[in-house]
Design a protein that fits this description.
The chain is α+β, with helices and mostly antiparallel strands and 264 residues long. The chain has two domains: 58-202, Glutaredoxin (3-Layer(aba) Sandwich), CATH 3.40.30.10; 223-264, no CATH class. It is 32% helix and 22% strand. It is built from seven helices and ten strands. The protein has helices spanning 24-52, 105-112, 117-121, 135-145, 158-161, 197-202, 242-263; strands spanning 3-9, 12-18, 58-59, 65-68, 71-74, 84-89, 125-131, 151-154, 169-176, 179-187. The strands form two sheets. An eight-stranded mixed beta sheet has the order 3-10-9-6-7-8-4-5. It has a two-stranded antiparallel ribbon with strand order 1-2. A hairpin with a 2-residue loop joins strand 4 (65-68) and strand 5 (71-74). The longest helix has 29 residues, at 24-52. The radius of gyration is 23 Å and the shape is globular. The two termini are 34 Å apart.
Length: 264
C-alpha cells in the first residue's frame, strides 16, 4: 500500500504517493529481494561485455588528421602509445548552443563525469575528446571547466565517417603496430552510462583485463583489485604493491566468509 505525503514544491504543496513505510526487518527483506535482481543484472552485463570483446573489428584504411595542443597528428597519434583508444565526439564549435563560452550542455555533463584518466592509462587505454572548435578555444574551455582529458580538433570527414557528425558518440579503436581497427561504437542513451573507469574498460576490446572475465584466449589479464593504485602512483611495468595485495586478499576472504555464513 502506498502512503500519501505532502511536500513543498515551488512554494506550494504537492501530494506524492510514496512506497510503504515498514519495519527494519521488512526493509532488509525487500533489499535482499532487490539484490537478487541486481546481481542477475550485473551478471548479464558481464556476459554482454564478453560478447562485445568477441565482436569483429573493422580496419581503418583512411588517414585522418587532427589538431592537438602540439600540432597536427593522426588517428594513431591519439593513442598516445597505448593499444586502446576511446574517442568521444563532443559538440563544441560555432552553431552549437553555448558557443563560444560553453560546449553542448549534454556533452559537458558527460565531460564532468569522466573518471581520473590514470586508471584507464594503467590498462593500456587512452580516452580523448574531439570537436571542431580550434585548439585555442578548447584550451580555454578546459581551463574554465576543470577538464583534463586530451581534446583534439577535427579537420576532415572523421565525424561523418564514424557516425558522429550530427550526434555525440564514443568510438573505440585498437592499434596493432601502425594498423588501427574500429572495435565498438556507442551513442545516444548508451553514452549516459559512460564516465566510470569500468564503463570505459567494458567498452574496449580487452575489457577490464582481469582474470575473472570471459575473454578470448591470449588476452592480457591480471588478478582483480591487485592492479589498483592511487592515481598519482602508477608506474609503467611496476609490480603490484605487496602490501595492497595482502589488504585486498584479506578483504576478499572476509566477503567469502560472510557469504558462506549467510548460506549456512
Amino acid at each position: 500500500m502506498q502512503t500519501a505525503h505532502e511536500t513543498e514544491r515551488n512554494g506550494g504543496k504537492l501530494a506524492i504517493h510514496t512506497p510503504p513505510i515498514v519495519s527494519p526487518q521488512a526493509w532488509e527483506a525487500a533489499r535482499e529481494e532487490m539484490l537478487v535482481k541486481e546481481k542477475a543484472f550485473s551478471r548479464a552485463r558481464d556476459v554482454l561485455a564478453a560478447e562485445r570483446r568477441r565482436m569483429p573489428w573493422m580496419a581503418v584504411e583512411k588517414a585522418y588528421a587532427f589538431e592537438g595542443p602540439k600540432g597536427k597528428t593522426s588517428l594513431l597519434g591519439l593513442f598516445e602509445g597505448r593499444r586502446q583508444l576511446i574517442l568521444y565526439r563532443a559538440f563544441f564549435e560555432p552553431g552549437v548552443y553555448g558557443w563560444p563560452e560553453h560546449a553542448c550542455r549534454g556533452c559537458s555533463l558527460g565531460a564532468d563525469q569522466v573518471a581520473h584518466l590514470a586508471h584507464l592509462n594503467a590498462r593500456d587505454t587512452t580516452l580523448a575528446f574531439a570537436s571542431r572548435a580550434p585548439q585555442a578555444d578548447i584550451a580555454r574551455l578546459k581551463a574554465r571547466m576543470g577538464w583534463e582529458m586530451p581534446w583534439y580538433t577535427l579537420t576532415d570527414s572523421f565525424d561523418a565517417d564514424f557516425g558522429v557528425d550530427q550526434w555525440h558518440g564514443h568510438n573505440v579503436f585498437f592499434c596493432d603496430g601502425d594498423k588501427v581497427f574500429r572495435t565498438y561504437f556507442i551513442n545516444s542513451r548508451g553514452d549516459e552510462a559512460m564516465g566510470t573507469t569500468w564503463s570505459y574498460l567494458d567498452a574496449t576490446p580487452l575489457g577490464r583485463q582481469e582474470t575473472w572475465e570471459d575473454s578470448p584466449q591470449g588476452y592480457p589479464q591480471s588478478p582483480a583489485y591487485k592492479w589498483w593504485n592511487w592515481h598519482d602512483n602508477y608506474a609503467v611495468a611496476a609490480a603490484p604493491d605487496q602490501r595492497w595485495v595482502e589488504v585486498s586478499d584479506a578483504g576478499e576472504a572476509a566477503f567469502r566468509n560472510r557469504d558462506a555464513g549467510a548460506k549456512a
